[in-house]
Design brief:
Layout: H1 2-27, H2 31-51, H3 59-73, H4 78-82, H5 85-91, H6 100-104, H7 117-127, H8 131-144, E1 157-159, E2 164-166, H9 167-174, E3 178-183, H10 188-200, E4 206-211, E5 224-228, H11 231-237, E6 245-249, E7 255-258
Parallel strand pairs: 3-4, 4-5
Antiparallel strand pairs: 1-2, 1-5, 3-6, 6-7
Helix pairs in contact: 1-2, 1-3, 2-3, 5-7, 7-8
Length: 262
């Protein structure tokens, strides 16, 4: 336990040190100095990951180290990151309990919040030779890409107080752009978002609140309220890592924004 705490403390210290380099880099002026600072940053990010002993960290500590690493390399351009992925993945099998893809199978993992998640999965496919890891990664990548901006939102069966219907029909009946919010009635974060939406009263958008369970909440009377008829269909067609899950779609059902908070 003491060893894990010590390792985690050292990891946090290194991340803080690299973040300081990031601040200096962002404040630099002049191409030569910026190039030097970027090279320095790349070296420090590499050194940070080299210093992580994946076999000695607890699962939570390793997971946080991965999140920190992804945050740091996010400040490098895609070409620079490309050369760093193989070395990153090569260390992961050393951990005795879990591999990279195991964390992504956990909907509560902080890895889902990283903006590099898609790139992370694509490069994992390039780097791994393990068949099971490839199959699971392909599945996660396929799910992650569902309902991306520019695509038509997936249709699912829903039930309102009046009838059985579908998400497409609710959008068509609205006749305008919609803010679709998937929620759980027992979710406190969902309650907070509902309150903010009531206060802000989004203009030009029809709010459609859909419970992912068979129960609904009392919501604003101007909103459309429904619940998912088939939870298995919901899980198959939508990829969400936390609730509420919010989309803005056009009157034709084209996703304009996703994973947003009001």
């Amino acid at each position: 336990m003491a060893g894990n705490i010590s390792n985690l403390t050292m990891s946090i210290f290194r991340v803080i040190s690299i973040c300081f380099v990031l601040q200096v880099f962002n404040c630099c002026s002049g191409n030569t100095r910026q190039i030097q600072q970027k090279e320095d940053l790349q070296e420090k990010v590499t050194a940070y990951w080299d210093s992580i002993d994946t076999s000695s960290l607890s699962e939570d500590s390793l997971e946080q180290s991965i999140v920190d690493y992804l945050y740091l390399i996010g400040h490098l351009d895609s070409h620079e990151r490309e050369s760093m992925w193989p070395k990153f993945y090569k260390k992961m099998p050393e951990h005795p309990n879990r591999t990279v893809v195991d964390y992504l199978g956990d909907s509560n993992s902080p890895l889902h919040s990283t903006r590099l998640l898609e790139e992370y999965l694509i490069n994992l496919l390039k780097c791994t030779e393990d068949t099971i890891t490839r199959i699971r990664t392909e599945y996660l990548l396929e799910n992650y890409r569902k309902n991306n901006v520019g695509s038509t939102i997936s249709n699912i069966k829903v039930i309102t107080k009046r009838q059985k219907t579908s998400l497409y029909k609710l959008i068509q009946e609205a006749g305008q752009s919609c803010l679709i919010i998937f929620y759980d009635p027992d979710c406190s974060s969902c309650d907070a978002v509902f309150e903010r939406l009531k206060e802000q009263k989004p203009t030009g958008l029809r709010v459609i609140a859909i419970s992912i369970t068979g129960m609904e909440k009392d919501i604003d009377k101007s909103w459309v309220s429904a619940f998912v008829e088939d939870e298995a269909e919901m899980d198959e067609k939508f990829y969400y890592t936390s609730l509420p899950s919010i989309y803005i779609v056009s009157d034709e059902g084209i996703v304009v924004k996703k994973d947003i908070l009001p």
